[in-house]
């Protein structure tokens, strides 16, 4: 049964006035005091009583490459309010950024500048399905992947348009003619988004520590209540169960559902009758399901529930899991993972215009599992992770970039533990295949039924490099391990 509750919240980005620094590295390390005008604007644009913030800075033409005439847009080195994650957005979500985005940042702790880092430019494959309410809200923007840079207080960025010959497209591509006569036009409205994820949440304890204290907003209460039966209201973590405990929990749930269904269509059998096995007895077969892993809740990683849209959107049975990487880089510690998630969450909602974070679950390099989109970890929450295949699936994102770097064995094990449990709730074999109907994308037309692995990589449903070749090559191991956890 599909239930939909939705309401809109405006998407705003607080613009900040930043002070340009001299381009040379030595001068760039200097920290000029803010002017009175800059300080006033910063105070006005800071969001009151909301942890974290977003600075949105328009990009300008810096120069044109002499050989091709292609534009280079960006910003000269400048001091800004503290941030830890960044990305680039533009007006038209259907437009692609053909070019190279590079940034360098200044550490707020040491005052030293990083080297130039590349930002993953193609992010349109992570999105709500075409034609859905989330896709057609009018708030959605095109975007790069976000990049985690750690606590920083200055930034420099350059965006080089890709030559037409390399991109294989002409000047009629969507966007402005910023690419020049021989370059692919860059999308219009390019802006650099600088995300402060807010104060780090204290690490969640075990179940014995009980729920977090403190008043909860209505939105936070609803998000926590969606996990009723799994953890107390306000809990920072859903505790792990053994496989036997998980099986008993599932059988009890199935039995209650079967009893309700039977009572709704037929009268109860008289006591002592010896009729055929009823719905309850049929549910008593030992299920194939892995032990429920510990899962850090949204309250555990410090989600600001006022950012997302109210209400939850559900899909049908979870028939498959799509594995992703966040492409946010690998320069984070496991203690920083909640901050990285808060940054991605704010980028998805405030900068990109989505109703909530796109992934259903996230896993850090230490193998710790985090609740993603709100609505309940055991429920079929509709995400925005695999364009065309968000219905009847779940999206699992490993925090990091895995095109050239292998994922940790702990992260791969985390995928197996999570999918063994969640797919087991829905009776799915992690080593099996299933049919999914495409919602439309660049690999499969809308309405086409596609046979895919129950645990698939993002690239299986959309023409993309995600989840990176090094992570994609580990999915076979994740499938086998998940099936073993299920007792298959």
From TrEMBL:
PANTHER family linked to this entry: PEPTIDOGLYCAN RECOGNITION PROTEIN (PTHR11022), PEPTIDOGLYCAN-RECOGNITION PROTEIN LC-RELATED (PTHR11022:SF41)
Q: Where is the composition biased (Low complexity)?
A: 32-50, 206-220, 253-281
- Give positions of region: Disordered: 32-57, 163-220, 253-291
Residue ranges with Gly residues bias: 169-182
Q: Which range is the signal sequence, renumbered to this chain?
A: 1-27
The family database entries (InterPro entries) matched by this protein are listed as: Amidase/PGRP_sf, Amidase_domain, PGRP, PGRP_domain_met/bac
Source organism phylogeny: Bacteria, Bacillati, Actinomycetota, Actinomycetes, Kitasatosporales
Q: Which residues form the Peptidoglycan recognition protein family domain?
A: 293-441
The UniProt family comment states: Belongs to the N-acetylmuramoyl-L-alanine amidase 2 family.
Q: Which UniProt keywords apply?
A: Signal
Task: State what protein this is by name.
Answer: Peptidoglycan recognition protein
Tree of life domain: Bacteria
Which residues fall in a coiled-coil region? Answer: none
What the entry lists under Pfam families is as follows: Amidase_2
């Amino acid at each position: 049964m599909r239930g939909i509750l939705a309401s809109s919240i405006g998407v705003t980005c607080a613009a900040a006035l930043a002070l340009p620094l001299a381009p040379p590295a030595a001068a760039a390390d200097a920290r000029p005091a803010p002017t009175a005008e800059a300080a006033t604007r910063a105070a006005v644009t800071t969001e009151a009583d909301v942890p974290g913030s977003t600075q949105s800075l328009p990009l300008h033409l810096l120069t044109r490459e002499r050989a091709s005439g292609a534009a280079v847009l960006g910003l000269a080195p400048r001091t800004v309010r503290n941030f830890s994650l960044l990305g680039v957005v533009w007006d038209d979500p259907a437009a692609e950024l053909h070019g190279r985005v590079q940034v360098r940042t200044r550490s707020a702790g040491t005052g030293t500048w990083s080297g130039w880092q590349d930002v993953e430019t193609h992010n349109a494959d992570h999105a709500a399905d075409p034609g859905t309410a989330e896709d057609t809200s009018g708030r959605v923007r095109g975007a790069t992947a976000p990049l985690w840079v750690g606590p920083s207080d200055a930034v420099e960025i350059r965006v080089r348009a890709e030559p037409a010959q390399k991109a294989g497209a002409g000047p009629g591509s969507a966007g402005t003619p910023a690419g020049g006569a021989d370059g692919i036009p860059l999308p219009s409205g390019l802006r650099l988004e600088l995300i402060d994820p807010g104060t780090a949440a204290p690490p969640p304890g075990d179940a014995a520590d009980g729920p977090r204290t403190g008043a909860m907003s209505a939105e936070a209460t609803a998000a926590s209540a969606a996990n009723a039966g799994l953890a107390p209201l306000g809990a920072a973590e859903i505790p792990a169960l053994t496989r036997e405990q998980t099986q008993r929990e599932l059988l009890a749930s199935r039995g209650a559902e079967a009893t309700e269904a039977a009572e709704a269509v037929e009268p109860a059998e008289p006591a002592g009758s010896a009729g055929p096995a009823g719905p309850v007895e049929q549910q008593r077969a030992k299920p194939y399901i892995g032990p429920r892993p510990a899962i850090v809740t949204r309250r555990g990683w410090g989600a600001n529930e006022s950012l997302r849209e109210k209400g939850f959107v559900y899909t049908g049975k979870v028939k498959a899991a799509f594995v992703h990487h966040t492409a946010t880089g690998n320069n984070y510690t496991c203690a920083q993972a909640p901050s990285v998630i808060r940054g991605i969450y704010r980028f998805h909602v405030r900068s990109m215009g989505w109703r909530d974070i796109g992934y259903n679950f996230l896993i850090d390099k230490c193998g710790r599992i985090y609740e993603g989109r709100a609505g309940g970890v055991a429920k079929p929450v509709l995400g925005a992770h695999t364009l065309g295949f968000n219905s009847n699936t779940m999206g699992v994102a490993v925090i990091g970039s895995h095109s050239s770097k292998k994922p940790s064995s702990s992260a791969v094990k985390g995928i197996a533990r999570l999918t063994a449990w969640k797919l087991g709730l829905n009776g799915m074999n992690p080593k099996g295949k299933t049919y999914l109907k495409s919602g439309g994308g660049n690999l499969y037309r809308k309405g086409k039924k596609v046979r895919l692995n129950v645990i698939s990589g993002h690239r299986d449903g959309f023409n993309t490099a995600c989840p990176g070749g090094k992570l994609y090559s580990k999915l076979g191991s994740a499938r086998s391990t998940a099936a073993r956890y299920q007792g298959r």
